Amino acid sequence: MSELLTIKEASDWATEHIGREVTTSNISYLIQYGRVRKINDNGTTQIKKQDLLNYYGSHNSKRELSWKKQLGDDLNWALSFDQYREAETTKHVHRLHPYKGKFIPQLVEYFLDDHIDDFKKEIYFQKSDIVLDPFSGSGTTMVQANELGMNAIGIDVSAFNALIGNCKVDKYDLKLLKEETNRITKQLEKFLADRKTTEFENRLLEELNIFNNKYFPVPEFKYKVRIGEIDDLIYGEEKEKEFLPIFDQLIEEYHIKLRQEKGDKSFLDKWYLQTIREEIDFVFNLIKEIKDLKTKKIVSVILSRTIRSCRATTHSDLATLIDPITSTYYCKKHGKICKPLFSIEKWWKSYVKDTIKRLAEFDKLRTSTFQYCLTGDSRKIDIDASLKKINPEFEKQLQEKKIKGIFSSPPYVGLIDYHEQHAYAYDLFGFERRDELEIGPLYKGKGKAAKESYVEGIANVLNNCKRFLVEDYDIFLVANDRNNLYPQIAEKAGMKIVNQFKRPVLNRTEKDKNAYSEIIFHLKRK
Fold it and tell me: How far is 337 from 179, CA to CA, in rounded Å?
């Protein structure tokens, strides 16, 4: 019989085997999701060492060699930052709100900080320098500049992106924030007490637990799916239909209204159940009562994060919405029958607690430097004039010192519609959408015209921004340039590419495990 290990022994063995920390939680995850088989021995959970060898041998240990074979030996594995756990790549305020396409903070730190190594042979930025990110997105560059004692300016065409970034770097009265969120939570609880939603959902969960324990036992079911003993899609569809009458009966008993009467006029109308929509509107009206502007903004971001998690969709389709879901369904991700959400209460409470914790963590690291994201078109915006309205004192410093350089991740050609990914927030807050000003959006495709427009757009951004840079600037742009567009962009911007850092991008999405890399282009004045 193969050697058996406890979860703690498996954690220690795996840590030594792959050369980086594997926690007991990581091992429990492998068991829960059927990656390795659970063996019970006198009440103690054990696993076979051979199962771990099989898993790590195929999944991790050979990955670097495999990826270099596919992507080239110039792949800089040190820039994969695979030694960091997710909690570190999403540290403190970086996870205040979901955002597609953002880079991890360690990548920004690598180029902004004062270390040198075999690949980064010189220091490009110093404390108190001013860094620019003309595609600010969720504000990662601004946050890391703050940590490193640098000033930073962001620019984004999306008003909601600017809100997220500015909320991350703002300083709050955490006592006031707790008071306001507690007030709203108590009012929400009272609101729910007058309805039957909570009672209905508790009854539904009880029925689902009974049903799932019977037909989708953990972890046996997932293990049988993994070894091909069960076709989960066929089996899942069969059990989905079997549970539906129980769901319908509870809906009728508690008079739960599923679809909104408004139809599909807006994102909020289409993608939220009626019970959820009522709670969203109720909380939003309470947020409007907050007098302190900073507190009102960060609580608005908490609500936005909450409602993003409460869309009427399956767990597998959270990243790319397909069809609204209004009943229980077989969930391939969790290997059981799941349900849509009928209340925001759980997520609201969770995100309130998480946000306050993350803001407090960042407070311990923040420096007394200036960061702000401007809302505007980076191809045309006058950074000096715009900052003069926000902070005249810092604008004087900008005129005297100028911006040392850029660290940014421009949009990719035909990959993301940046306004649409937060359509719920635009509907709720009433922000003006400026989709037509996005560079390389998904809706314009990846054809010849789209690529030409993209080259022109990025070059125009660089030409506009370099007016505000020092003479000997350093620009770092993160891109997957599979179309070889950046040499053209550099030429049009009067710049030269002096170096390229090719890095593997790990764990992009749950559905895409293929080898993938991106280039950090280092540009200077021509």
Answer: 38
